[in-house]
Specification:
The complex is a heterodimer of chains A (210) and B (251). The longest helix of chain A is centred in the N-terminal third of the chain and has 35 residues. Chain A contains nine helices and no strands. By secondary structure, chain A is mainly alpha-helical. The chains are: A mainly alpha (210), B alpha/beta (251). At the A-B interface, helix 6 and helix 7 of A face helix 2, strand 6 and helix 3 of B.
């Protein structure tokens, strides 16, 4: 069986696995942004919190992904077998690039511009939303882009704890010693990662040009 | 002179960080409508003194009074909106157009759209820039001199009574610098604002200031009308006089 004939014969299954994969990644990214963005904003003003939050996010990212999935299984509510656990693990992974880039972006705005904003009588909130955020959006988006590409890749491993997605083909192919089946999962996953990278890269350049 | 003529009063002001006094025991009265130049070497405390006026800094001891009220008794946002502020390189918002930069404080003050727009055009013409050509540009599409003009226009937009300027022409080439100094001198005389102008350039200070206040190591060492300043015997004044003579001799 060539990879191509497997593709053709199983295209329905592959498409639904791809959609499942996308759904897991989208959910994980949604929560990672929901947590990472405000936390990154909070870090700019709070020095004490900064070391702790970036440290924890750093450590989380050094845990091997398969181990992280394993650790989460016995934890009540967020753990167990299935998609929910996978999403939790992926959120923890995606958090660092988003958190770090949000903080770095906000903190690296030209101090002269911030001083001018303060001296003009802008309030803290006005400075954050009208000056800091617009000026660091490119850096923040770069963090989201990195996180998305990582998440698409790591999400294939989520199949190991029964979350589905394109990883199921890869694990099945490894078990069957069939390159065709492995490729049926690996190729769409790689294409997704490249597509996401290009799309977010394009958005980033648009922002910088504006 | 009655106390109502005092726009800004420093009363024995000290500002220290980590136990080191950057400004020490400064007392100074600034009259409404005068242009006072804070002169001194780098690190003399000039900028710190300026930042104490709009409460970017709060005195460690003593008090700064703006229009008879201590800066600590003012709402800082209100206080800052009563003052224009111009810094080196302008500190313009790179993501805003020239018009948005100039119109920001009026917009924050709740002016309606048409009023902001006409004020922006008036300000651009005031600093010698054609609104049709410059209003829609971004700061990066301007020369250094043009950016500085926009910085002045932005500071004047909400018609503040006080203008604070921190080496506004410091980063410009000598020709543009001389041009802006001349224009600004005329503008300052015409507008009648109270202006506090920080510089380390004695020539610029003498050109623009009605009075010069010299700082050295955080202390105010001499205050005099511009035309009498160089006659003061204080060694720091004479050091600046010597620098002036040396540079005009070379030129």
């Amino acid at each position: 069986m060539t990879p191509w004939t497997f593709f053709v014969e199983h295209h329905g299954e592959i498409i639904s696995a791809t959609l499942e994969h996308l759904a897991i990644v989208a959910m994980a990214m949604f929560f990672a942004i929901l947590i990472g963005l405000p936390l990154g904003m909070a870090l700019v003003e709070r020095r004490a919190l900064r070391g702790a939050a970036l440290g924890v996010a750093n450590i989380l990212q050094t845990v091997p992904s398969l181990a992280l999935f394993g650790f989460l299984i016995p934890i009540p509510f967020i753990g167990g077998i299935g998609r929910r656990t996978a999403v939790v693990a992926l959120v923890l992974y995606a958090l660092l690039p988003i958190l770090r880039n949000t903080y770095v972006g906000l903190a690296s705005v030209d101090p002269a511009v911030l001083e001018a904003a303060e001296a003009m009588g802008m309030t803290r909130q006005q400075i954050l939303w009208r000056v800091r955020m617009p000026l660091s959006l490119g850096v923040i988006l770069a963090g989201i882009r990195t996180a998305t590409v990582i998440t698409i890749g790591v999400a294939t491993i989520a199949a190991a704890i029964g979350a589905g997605g394109l990883g199921s083909f890869i694990f099945r192919g490894v078990a069957m010693v069939s390159n065709a089946v492995i490729l049926a999962g690996a190729v769409p996953a790689a294409l997704l990662a490249v597509a996401a990278d290009l799309a977010l890269g394009w958005a980033e350049r648009r922002l910088k040009a504006a | 002179m009655s106390s109502a003529d005092k726009a800004i009063v420093f009363k024995d002001v000290t500002w220290q960080v980590n136990g080191r006094a950057i400004v020490a025991g400064v007392s100074l009265e600034i009259s409404t409508g005068e242009t006072i130049v804070l002169l001194g070497r780098s690190g003399a405390g000039k900028t710190t003194l300026l930042r104490l006026i709009n409460r970017l800094l709060v005195p460690s001891a003593g008090e700064v009074r703006v229009r008879e009220r201590a800066t600590t008794a003012w709402d800082p946002i209100r206080l800052r909106r009563e003052m224009g502020y111009v810094i080196q390189e302008g500190g313009l918002f790179p993501h805003y157009t020239v018009a948005e930069n100039i119109g920001l404080v009026p917009a924050l003050e709740g002016w309606d759209g048409p009023r902001v727009k006409s004020r922006v055009e008036e300000m651009l013409r005031l600093v010698g820039l054609d609104p049709a050509e410059f209003a829609a540009r971004r700061p990066r599409e301007l020369s250094g001199g043009q950016r500085q003009r926009v910085g002045v226009a932005r500071a004047l937009a909400a018609d503040p009574a006080i203008l604070l300027m921190d080496e506004p022409f410091g980063a410009l080439d000598p020709v543009t610098r001389a041009e802006l100094q001349r224009e600004f001198r005329a503008l300052a005389r015409r507008l009648g604002k109270t202006i506090v102008f920080v510089t380390h350039d004695v020539r610029e200070g003498l050109l623009l200031g009605t009075r010069i206040a010299l700082m050295a190591a955080g202390r105010l060492v001499a205050v005099a009308p511009a035309q009498e300043f160089l006659k003061i015997a204080h060694p720091e004044v004479q050091a600046f006089a010597a620098a002036l003579n040396a540079s005009s001799g070379a030129a």
